[in-house]
Structure formats: structure tokens, C-alpha cells
Write a structure and sequence with these properties.
11 helices; 15% strand; TIM Barrel; alpha/beta; globular
Length: 252
Amino acid sequence: MMDANGEELAPAVRSILSAAHERAGGDERLSVDARSFSAAIADAESDGRVPVVAEVKPTSPTTEGQRDDDPAELARAMVSGGAAAISVLTEPEHFGGSTATLEQVRAAVDVPVLRKDFIVKESQLDLVASDLVLLIARFVDDLPGLLSAAEDRGFQPLVEVHTREELDRALAAGADLIGVNNRDLGQLAVDLDTFESIAPHVPADVTLLAESGIGSAADVRRMRAAGADALLIGSAIMDGDVTENVQRFTTA
């Protein structure tokens, strides 16, 4: 299976994308009253914290093992550590996620919550309310259409890119919140140089996130120096005491 760029994908990602195309959408169009992500970033900055989106991540194809902690408790612990927002995996087949988990987390915290999934069609936006929703440029054929559909429902769309071409597509579609994924979904390899090479081409009025491969305070400082307004961190927070791990990154 190819992506929207006509490029080959890693087998695990092909399986994820195939499942995404088969997954049904919601029955009724949602209308979301979203918590402001830009305000959450500003609050973290004014409090002297690095803005971190901490991810509730039971498992994934790129990690070993699984955490069975109550997701709402995990999210509250992350916020206690200083997380500016929470990301929740809702992809069921490969990440052990669910829309029910997102609902539990969003009810448990007062920070913005990102729905992280492989959304490829408009009706899939209507499966669950969240504050932010991830749109992966590499997997979306009609990015302007899906971006507009998300905004019309009240979501704050985070458009994920990995290349300059995808960045150009995201900007042309009108994205004002962009995440650069340091993981190549073609090979699943991670390289922090990816963010550093793309960030200089992102307009100053666009909110920019660094995603994947951030595992140390030094990585945080590196991504911030390269222009990251916020960081999305999953595995490095889930491995151990999540409150302490978030604190380590937000005070880097």
C-alpha cells in the first residue's frame, strides 16, 4: 500500500492504514467546544514550563510491552507533572486505543486533549469529541477538505508532516498548527534532524510541535532551540513514573 505521496510504507504502517480505511465513522455530526491549545501553551510558558503534550499510550508497533494502568489516572498524573495537554491514542487494532479511553481522559483533566488516530475520512471525525484532532498529511488525500471539516466541528486540527513537500501541502491547506514527526512512517526510523531541517521553513505565526524520538532533557532543549513551540512525547513518559517523567521534560 502506498501513502498519499505514492510512496511505500512500512508493513506495520500499511496494516494500520488499511484498517483505518475500513473503520466506520460516527452516526451524527459532532460540534465541539474545544479547550484552547494556544492558551495551554501560553500558560505553560508563563509558568516557566516547557509545553509538553504527554501521550497516554497503552502500546504501539514500535514499543515493547503494554501498560494497563487506568488511563484517567495516568492523565491526571501527567497533568500533575506539568503537562500542557494530553494525547490519547484511539486507534484500536494496533495501539490498544479506544474512543472510550479518550472520553474518560477528557472528563478527568482540564487541559486540552488530542485525539491521535489515523483519520482518513470526514465521518471518522464524528466518532468522539476532543479538543485537538490529528490529521496525518501523508495519509490524507483531501487535506484541505478534511482540515476544513475538522474546524467546522470546532476541533483544533494538528496536521502532522515529515517532509518539506508535506509541510507545503499543510500550509497550502491552511494549517496553523503543525507537528513534525521525526519518525519516518516508511521505515519507522527516527531522526531528530528531521525537525531541524523542516522547522526553518515554518512561518512564525504557525504553532509548531516536535513529535517522536524525544527521550531526554537534551532532546527537549535541542527541539526547542530548533523552534518547537511544544513537544509531543509518548514512550519516554509512559516508561516509569509518568509524573516524574513529565516533570523531567517540562523543566528541561
